[in-house]
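hey so u asked for the seq, here:
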Amino acid sequence: MATPKDLPDVGGFIRDLRRNAKISLRQLAEQAGVSNPYLSQIERGLRKPSAEVLQQLASALRVSTPAMYLRAGLLDDKEGQGVLAAIAVDPDLTMAQKQSLTQIYETFRRENSRLAEAEAATEAAEAAAEAAQTTEATARAGSGAGPAAAPSAPGTAPEAPGTATPAATGPTTPEGTPTEAVLESVAVTEAGPAPAPPSSTPARKAAEQATAVKTEQTAAAVEEEKS
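ran it, structure tokens below
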């Protein structure tokens, strides 16, 4: 591919473009808005045109402004500008063909850049969605485990369950206090059930009979003393 070092200087580049377009030096100077002697000095390499003048000359010659800047050394041969310069100086192409090729080439490059940006945005969105799903799954796993129970201190005995005192329920006095019957019921409940009377045994019956006989004898003795 041709580079600025392989091609003529910008003055010769402008002169070749003007001759290929078959326009005179005066006509190009009028279209570019510069004087006739100034343009002649540019073509002979005696003057270095400014970026503004190069842009005006590129518009008048119907070539790409970046291609003109490249030939003037204002741009590096990057991002396909060398292709535009090669198209602009190709002697086998007409001016209309050069303009068409330049437009097609720049359209393709813009479309490729747009597609690359769209793909980058899609990849970024997918990565963000995947990160959000991972974060949500981690949060769910952490909440499902629940907090661990705190270990008891060494040497601490477990607390015994408290004994609930039965409430005094039942009829109350006009002042709202429980009646005596209710209090007795509560006392009996707190004391627990009364022990069952011991079952009768032969020894107990004999003792009871002996006690009864002795009681009768004592009563008889008392009666005798009174009489």
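The two ends are 165 Å apart (CA to CA). The chain is about 65% helix and 0% strand.
lmk if thats what u needed
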